[in-house]
């Protein structure tokens, strides 16, 4: 299991790096700090952008589930449920927030800004803000689970990453709005914002806004990578399946294997 966070981190960063290089080679974006979404907006790079993020999101959802089960088990072992009555509910809410972040990532990946801008922006908002809340809530849970699962250093790292997401997200929204206002004030066709260049109004604000986006991607990748140390301490057993045989739908006994019939759902 501990290799899954490494795979997620590499796949996550690989997606944005490849689509960036591809979009620059196709001259779809300006090389210096384009918006992350702009690098995966136009085909053919948009196809790879959506495909890779879909696959990565599936792995992230799996990691969120494993983390949820890990926390549930450790909370029971440490009997924190008695000490902190809301710990179980807190864990469930944290998992739901993590799933919301994945939903936002899917919306952002599959609804390009040139196709359905409103849905793309909603997805971006849900993804990053939910991710910020999820990381901070995980920092709180990590604090509860020390020293059995992690040390205080991991608590500080996750808390720091969560705060950084909030800071970069706010900075991105503010500077991005200023850049677009300056751009719009010049009465320039808004479709040109896909390819920001130094000669356009609002360029400096755009660079700051876009830089924040790239830092957000890096922070999310680092947080997911931090699960490496958690997953290294746990194992996942394959589920046990009980097959039923007709007509009484009783559990199949060893002697009745020859009469086994798989029932349709």
UniProtKB/TrEMBL annotation:
It holds the Pfam family Frag1. One of its GO terms (cellular component) is endomembrane system. The chain crosses the membrane at residues 7-25, 48-68, 89-110, 122-145, 152-174, 205-229. It comes from the Eukaryota. It is found in: Endomembrane system. The keyword Cytoplasm does not apply. Residues 3-233 form the CWH43-like N-terminal domain. This is Putative conserved plasma membrane protein. It comes from Panstrongylus lignarius.
